[in-house]
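The protein record now logged underneath.
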Amino acid sequence: MFELDPDKPDIPALARIQLWMGVLCMIGSVISLLLAFSAYEWINEVYAFAGAIGAFLVALLFVDQAKTLELQPVISARVKSRFAMEGVTRAMPGMTGGTGGDRKPGIISQKQTERVIKVSEKDAREQGLRLR
């Protein structure tokens, strides 16, 4: 069976939108800079330079926000798993070095269900999935 990597959730749509808006602003910055160096009479060089710098700063802002939103689900999943592990270890007194007097009821284990996903070997190699 192949297993999906739980540490790499899907990228949110808002992050993809902001990333591409940042790329478009970078392209606009380059075009504005090229227009500033052109010898056209109808272009004011001061505004063209200011537009290039402004578009560059907006592009940096968009790309930074996109990367932050992209990492947010990963951090959230790791924090949740850490709190879950701390809850499990707190419930078992032998694991944390607690005394026998403060015993808590044990955790009721449930049957683990596995999801079965059928993927061809070629697609699995391309996606980076590993055989379990």
Observations:
- DSSP finds four helices and two strands in the chain.
